[in-house]
Amino acid sequence: MKNKHYLLGALAALILPAVCLSCDDDKESWSAVDGNDPVLALESTELGSRLGRTVNIKGKVTDADGLRYIKLQCLPLYLDKTIDIVDIYGEALTEYDLDYKISSDLTEAGDIFDITVTAVDVLGKETSAKVRIDMNGDVDDPVFAIAPAEEITVVLKEAAELELSFTVTDDRGLGSVEVAVPEIQFSDIVTEFADPCEYTYARTISFPASNADYTMNVAVADKAGHKVERVCVIHVSDTPDFAKMWLADVASAQELNSDVMGVPMLISHTGQFTYEARYYNEAAGTQIYFLPQRTDFKPLCYGLDPADNTRITGDAATAKPFVLDQAKMYYHITFNILTRSYSIDTYSPAEAVVPYPHTFGAMEMDQWEDGSELTEFWFGYTTEGPGNIKRFTQDADNPCLFRLDETISLNAGNHSGFIIHNYHSDGWWNYCTWRADNEFDPEHAGYYGKAKNPAWKEPMADDIWFKPPVPADGKYTLTFDAHLGHIKIVPAK
Fold first, then answer.
1. Architecture of 143-237 per CATH?
2. Would you tell me which of 37, 264, 312, 360 could form a disulfide with 246, CB atoms 3.0–4.6 Å apart?
């Protein structure tokens, strides 16, 4: 009869350097070293889980006489797993790192299970401990739904004031939010929340009226003690020259924080106080701003000055958007935040240079690089390599623009790794491919292919895979602009 409970265990163990004992496994004879019981040090005996999640029973097991096996048992789950160390490794070990993964079946919601872990040494001495798994437990860290930027600039005028705002959420209940700026003895702790699962922190912090840098620490904990922290650098300056600037074509701070990558879009810092942006405008009427912090429209947001639209302003309260009125065109915008001047021009997709060497979808790729066979040239998204690729669809109006027709299912945490690559049936690597500018914080896709359009003059990228942070479990859409080297992965609508 099928029981309603079922766990699927998978073992992943790491052996630390250890003293291995000589033994004759056939005779089952070992000599005692100290005759003591094994030492079983589990990292945690209280674990939370959810439907479809994986929990790890982890710990270090030691025994001077030598470990023979480790058992994990839970009668209600029909779990009876023996890790036979001598059988697996051919000898007893004095140290063993236990890392046993258990994934839960969908019928176990709300249940609590006690798993007995027993370590047995070669003399038959044993030590046991219980691990409780709560299938309704708190397993997730709090989340910055709208995060404070890692670098924030406060423009020094008559005073230096930061209007700090960010939003945090937790699916089971927030415990505390703490903000501290040690250099100015600022400390603020919030422990009471009108909505236990979502809180927006909003407070004005005053700084000394002089150019200086400060460190701000933000720590958020939930009721179970899971914590996330963020360290921010506050620049107080009367003439800020931002190292980075981003183009925002979305309407809310939530959209700035819900993407996997690409929103807002990094632009170029071409000189002191001077920036250059290139942007493909698909539909007339697109509104854009420029931000020196990528997670919010405050404290600074550059747009048109409402009193003089020939100039720009960084005042987030009054700045008006640039409105792009030409559809299916590339916009080229330069601006200087000191002189407050800007210029705009456009060019067509036909004038845009791309690095890829052939017509997408044409029988133009030299399959074996010897002229013997031409095959179809195409590329797309892959987490593996040239033989397993999700094919892009090329935009009908812009040959530089590509999309994945299907959505990508991703889990919260860092992406396991992907690149953009050409398809090849025989694993032909790096013929036409794009790589990341930064592994865990990618903002640009640089060309890394062996073959390229001779008109492409940009430098070759480094061999770095994209591993961006995924903010939440869900389905995402991907678009790629080969002319701009811009990948955008956002929640599917």
1. Sandwich (2.60)
2. 264
What gap in Å lies between CA 311 and CA 316, rounded to an integer?
Answer: 15
pLDDT beyond 70 at 105: no
**Reported confidence tier of residue 111, pLDDT bands at 50, 70, 90:** confident
* Whether 84 contacts 93, CB under 8 Å: no
Report the distance separating Cα 369 and Cα 381, nearest Å: 23
User: Using 50, 70 and 90 to split pLDDT, how confident is the model at 137?
Assistant: low
Q: Are the C-beta atoms of residues 474 and 465 closer than 8 Å to each other?
A: no
Share of the chain above pLDDT 90, in %: 78
Strands (E), 27-91: 39-42, 46-48, 54-74, 79-84
Angle value at C-alpha 276, between 297 and 292, nearest 5 degrees: 25
Q: Match 């620049």 to its residue by tokens.
A: 235
Using alpha carbons, select from 387, 385, 373, 379 the residue that is nearest to residue 361: 379
pLDDT of 328 reads 98
Q: How far apart are CA 298 and CA 435, in angstroms?
A: 31
Q: CA-CA distance, 6 to 460, in Å (whole number)? A: 51
User: pLDDT of 436-469, one tens digit each?
Assistant: 999 999 999 999 999 999 999 999 999 999 999 9
Name the H helices within 143-267. 253-257
Over residues 162-189, mean pLDDT: 95
Domain ranges of the chain: 7-134, 143-237, 246-347, 363-491
Encode pLDDT of 10-24 as tens digits.
333 333 334 444 444
In DSSP terms, 82 is beta-bridged to 71
Q: Is the pTM of this model over 0.85?
A: no
HSE value, Cβ hemisphere, 13 Å, CA-based, for 189 = 4
So what's the architecture of 363-491 in CATH?
Sandwich (2.60)
Q: Indicate the SS3 state at residue 225.
A: coil
**Can you tell me the distance from the alpha carbon of 193 to that of 170, in angstroms, rounded to the nearest whole number?**
12
Tell me: domain 7-134, CATH 2.60.40.10, correct? yes
Taking the C-alpha atoms of residue 401 and residue 393, their distance in angstroms, rounded to an integer, is 9
